[in-house]
Structure formats: structure tokens, C-alpha cells
TrEMBL record:
Source organism per UniProt: Phenylobacterium montanum
Record protein name field: mannonate dehydratase
Transmembrane segments: none
Known cofactor(s): Mg(2+)
Pathway: Carbohydrate metabolism; pentose and glucuronate interconversion
Top-level taxonomy: Bacteria, Pseudomonadati, Pseudomonadota, Alphaproteobacteria, Caulobacterales
SMART domains hit by this protein: MR_MLE
Amino acid sequence: MARIKSARVILTCPGRNFTTLKIETEDGLTGLGDATVNGRELAVASYLTDHMIPALIGREAHQIEDIWQYFYRGAYWRRGPITMAAIAAVDTALWDIKAKAAGMPLYQLLGGASRTGVMVYGHANGGTLDETIAEARRYREMGYKAIRLQTGVPGLASTYGVSGDKLFYEPADAALPTENVWSTVKYLPTVPRLFEAAREALGWDVHLLHDVHHRLTPIEAARLGKDLEPYRPFWIEDPTPAENQESFRLIRQHTTTPLAVGEVFNTVWDCKDLIQNQLIDYIRTTVVHAGGISHMRRIAHLAELYGVRTGSHGATDLSPVCMGAALHFDLWVPNFGVQEYMRHTAETDAVFPHAYSFKDGDLHPGEAVGHGVEIDEALAAQFPYRPASLPVNRLEDGTMHNW
Ligand code: GCO
Ligand code: MG
């Protein structure tokens, strides 16, 4: 047993901003937790520094559950992305410490490995169908068994998920939000064409995914799901915004294309109705945005009862600390589906040395004790925080839309 001696937030921008919590115990163990919320990094830093850390010092580091409950139930203004990312960072850092104290990789504490590796999907994207297919072939050559396909939409200057950088993607591209233009009418026919071309070029022995990024109405999403059925997508993601969860019933009534939702969810309460009513197939909550390992475990257990599998968010804005923790979770969780893996820049990888590695389409968390991700603080200090915001989206007539 050991008390928490210190805790502090480290902000760094090795290619993009990351908010990281470092906790140290009186017996000299340290643990790291990711607290990054893209475009709101300082808000989580303040929540941690001004409100949580003062109440954390002196607590027993091994009482992870009690500390989680203290900050969740103890926050009268509970839930929400900032609060839950801050709680997640504490939780992840404490699991890291507990596993280090036990002398084991974190997955062993969760219940041990349920599989030999964690199947990940990468992002093939391009301005045209041909470019996207060429990228997808490159991912196949790298060994990927699952690939997300995003392609440019003729007539639109830019599209979600299509970027110049091919292995990672950073949409937070300016201090104030960039304004993008969207047209559902132009977008809808491009995706079935893309999947048809992809099946022709890549065959059937590969999982193909697509992210709609919250942009369709329920009936438009139902149409897309139906149109994609012949190409057997692994999933379509965030087909419609999830505030009104009944929307998914409408989509479900029309299509057997599997649905994935949840990267912007913070708690099991956001997932509960979708899971219990079997309106989705994959739950995309992730360690940093959904309360850490402790809370992800609750979500996964609920999902398991209803045949819903995990498919955690793993974009570039989730730090290697989140990725490391997520991989231990994925290696253990019985109802695992897939893990998103958008790579990080070389600078990010250098700031966060990690034990996880990629081989034959799988990631493995490695055998280092804890979650296996550390931070080089001297190097981190060379990359100071830079304001960056996610874009916003307007229809062609100027109406605000979902990005
Ligand atoms: C995904 C996501 C990301 C988000 C990004 C926002 O499926 O990977 O939709 O690309 O847009 O994480 O910060
Ligand atoms: Mg997404």
C-alpha cells in the first residue's frame, strides 16, 4: 500500500497537443494517464490541476475503485467529456501503478490474455477512388486485416477523414475552427462506389469499415446501410448523431449493415439504451474519454450481455498512453471486436516510449510492467502547447451542420 505523493499535468505538442497526468506514490512508483480532449486540452488540465489533484494527494493509490467513485459521485456536475477524461487519467495512472507494484503487465491484472493479439484497423484514404484503393493496398501490404476507407467527394473541397498525411490524421488544423462545406447529396453515392471498387480490388478476405462522422439523418443512414450491404462492411460508424438514440432503431429496421457508435460517449449511461435495445453492434468508447479502465470494464460487461462487441476509438488525438492502456484492455476483454489504430508522428512516439508493437495486422501491448507507456519529460518540454481547434461544418447554403 502507498499513498499518492504528487500528481501533475504535462502538456506537450509533439505534432499535436496531449494532456498527460503523472502520479507518483510515496514508495516511488509512477503512473501515467491520458487526459487529452481534442481542442479542449487546457480545460481538462485545469479540471485536474485546480479541482482533482488537491483532493488526490494523500489518498491510498491502490484504492482505485474508491477514488473513481469519489471523483464521479463527488462531482455534483457529473459526467461530460472534460470531467470523464480527467477521471480517466487518474484511473489509468492508478492502474499503471498497481500493475507496476504487482510486477505485471496490466492485462494480467484484468484477467489475463484472451487472445494472441489485438486486431486493429488502419485508415486508407485518398482524394479519389483510385487513390483510396491504392492506399488500401498499401495497408494490406503492411499486414492490416481491417481497413477503414474514406474518399474525397466530387464537388466538395475537403471531406472528413481524407488528408495529406497517410498514416495519421490531425483534423485540428488551426487555432480557430476551420470551416468545411458539406453536401449529403454529393456524399451518399460515393461510398457504395468506393466499396464496390474496394471489393473488386482487394477481394473478400479483408474487413472494410467506413466512418460517416455523424452527418446523416436516420433515413439517409438507413439508405447508406442498405446500399453497402452487398459489399459486407465490417461496420459503418456514427451514421447519425447519437443524442436521439431512437434514431438507431429506424436505421436498424432497414439494414443488416453493422453499426458502430460511441467515440464521443463518456459513460455507460450514454451507451445503455443503444446496447440494451440491441441497436448497435460495436461500442466505440475508449479509455481516455469514458472514465478509464474501471469504467470501460463496466461498459464492456453490459455490452457482452447483448452481443455487442468493443471497437475502441484510437485516433491520433488519443495519446500513446491511452493506446497502451487500451491494448491491455483489448487483449483481455472477452467481447473484443476491433481496435482503431491511427498511428502517431515520430515526435509523438519519441516523447512517449512504449512497449506496444504492430505485427501482421495486430497490436500487442507488450510485456512491460504497468501499461508499458512512459513519457520523456525533457523531450516533451521541447514541444510547447499550441492552440488548435477541430473544424466546424456548414452546408453549401451556409447552414451549420455536424462536423
Ligand atoms: C475516428 C474519429 C476521429 C475524430 C477525432 C476527433 O473515428 O477516428 O472520428 O477521426 O474525428 O478523434 O478528435
Ligand atoms: Mg469516428
